[in-house]
Each structure stands twice: as C-alpha cells, then as structure tokens.
Amino acid sequence: MKIKEILSILEEMAPLAYAEDFDNVGLLVGNSEVEATGVLVCHDALESVIDEAIEKQCNLVVCFHPILFSGIKKITGKNYVERSVLKAIKNDIAIYAVHTALDNHQQGVNKIFCDALGLTNTKILIPKSNFIYKLVTYTIPENFQELRNALFDAGAGKIGNYEDCSFNSKGIGTYLGNENSHPQIGERFEFVEGEEIKIEVTFEKYLQSKILKALFKHHVYEEVAYEIYALQNTHQNIGLGMIGDLPQEMNELEFLQMVKQKLDCGGIRHTEFLENPIRKVAVLGGSGSFAISNAIQAGADVFLTADLKYHNFYEAENRIVLADIGHFESERFTKNYIVDYLTKKIPNFAIVLSQINTNPVKYL
C-alpha cells in the first residue's frame, strides 16, 4: 500500500483537525505517494530513530512529537532537528506526527494515561470550544429522508455516544422564481406555497465542506436554502486533559508511589501533602501548567502533569496536590497505543515499535 493509505488510517485514529492551532501535525517530511515498506512508531523522530527505520526497512516513521515544530529556514545539520530531517530525506523516509491531534482525542493520550492508573468514569478536563457548528436546511417531504441520511453519512448528527441526531419540523415554505429560475415545483413567476421539512443537525467544523457537498448533491432544489451557525457549546468528547476516579481512595504518598511504579518515573516533584484522601485524579500528558485552575475547578484531589516551573507549584493554593511526573513519563504508552491501533487496522503489514528511548531527561 502507499504511504498515503496509512496516513488516512492515522487520521481516523487522530483527526488532524483535533490538533491545537499552535501545533505542527501530519506529514512533515516525505512523499505520501510512494509505496510503504514498513512503519516505525516512536516518541521522537531523532536521528537515532531514523537509523533504526533504515535498519528495519521502514520508510514511514510515525512519531508523537513533531520533529519540525517551529519555522526552519536552513537545513545544514547543525542541530538534532536538521540532522534528523536530512537523514530522513536522504534515505526517502517519511515522517508523520500526531501530537495534539491525539492529545485531544477521547481515546488518546490522556485516556491512555488514565487507563495506566486504572481510573474510571473519565471525562475531558478542558472540552474544546469553537468546534461545533449547526446546519439548518429545508426540503420537501419527498426528499427529506434521502437528504437527512446523506448528511448523517457525511458526519453530521453525532452528539456524544449518539449518532444520526437531528431535529425535524414541518412548516410552509414559499418562493417565486424569476425569468432565470428553473423551479422543481411550480413555474417561473408563480408564487408557490407548499409543505417543507426543516432539518437541523450539528457537526464538527472541519467536516463543513463534506457536509455541504452532501447537501448540494442530495437536495432537489435548484437554489438550496441553508444556514450554518457556529455554536458556543464546548465539545465534551474532544479536548485537553482528563479527570477520573480511583476505584478505591488512597492516601497521597501511596498514590504517588503507585504512579511512580506504573509509569516508571525517575522522580516526582510535588506540592506539600494536604493530608486528604485521593479520590478524583486529573491528568494532562506533557506540559500542563496551564490547566492547574481547571483541575482545581473540576474538584480533583491531585493533578498529574509535567514541566511545572517553580512558581506553578504555588498555584496549588493548598487546594490540590500538584505532581510533575516527567514529560516523557506522562506520555509513555502513547507509541504502544499507535502500534496496537495500526496492527489491528493493517494486520498483515510491518508495524514496528521503536526500541529507542528518546527521553532526554536522566535521573540519579
């Protein structure tokens, strides 16, 4: 199969539209039209990982962190980013990054984090905003079922754990066509008044072009009447971080010892213990200091994340235990998840888990 076919499967796992605006996800290096020889899945696409891909005859490297993140004006091999990119290009290896596209997914990085700790009743900590749109259109009863089903097939009408959601109401529509019109019902210059059905469906905004294509293809009117609104609702199943419950409460020390063991942390920096039992746990893989207030507001007893600075620890305000467990450690099992997903989707293809530990942080 071609590399682009594998990329389509990866986008099913983590739609690129889910990524944060600041991020750089998707195909970063290489030609998607070439035949794939194998996939190497890693955390960071370092030069040593590219060497591993060459050795294992994989011409697609799927990484969690994008090796190309900010702008680059020269590729001379002077730093680790440029050396990786140069080696990949020289050896015809494509690099694809998922990063926050998988961070924001309901089954992604933070669900993997929660599952590793055995948390239950998990939900998104910071639901994504400005992501839900609404389509309103009108058609005749004879076209209603076909049109609505086409919109569902295009991805409209999904709300949480439910699909094919819509609201439909009957009314009277009117129109009068001019000399250039070709009305489906009635004649030019004839005032037409007839029964119509109003269809209302919501959809994720990145699906808009697909939704409109289905609308125009399956609507019987010459001029399609429709409206699209951006909703203020947050998307409860897409967003950063998660919060969940421990099956049984633990004291603070026991809990952090459990976290250290399950995630193989070299060390955990944390705020002062509050001598409260740990029941509700908030997590955010990677750098998560921006979510401290969200964790407090959600009623978490502890917030596990990484890259906390000195003054971030003060933000606990004796209301929560903050714990920096390490950036790599908080995302430790992400590459395993990607390998499992791809193996299930394309079982007869070489999907290889990188054996190189790319964590740059070491502990005494």
From TrEMBL:
The keyword Zinc-finger does not apply. Transmembrane segments: none annotated. Signal peptide: none annotated. Keywords: Metal-binding. SUPFAM superfamilies: NIF3 (NGG1p interacting factor 3)-like (SSF102705). It comes from the Bacteria. InterPro entries: DUF34/NIF3, DUF34/NIF3_bac, DUF34/NIF3_sf, N-reg_PII/ATP_PRibTrfase_C. Belongs to the GTP cyclohydrolase I type 2/NIF3 family. NCBIfam families: YbgI_SA1388 (TIGR00486). This is GTP cyclohydrolase 1 type 2 homolog. It comes from Flavobacterium luminosum. The lineage of its organism: Bacteria, Pseudomonadati, Bacteroidota, Flavobacteriia, Flavobacteriales.
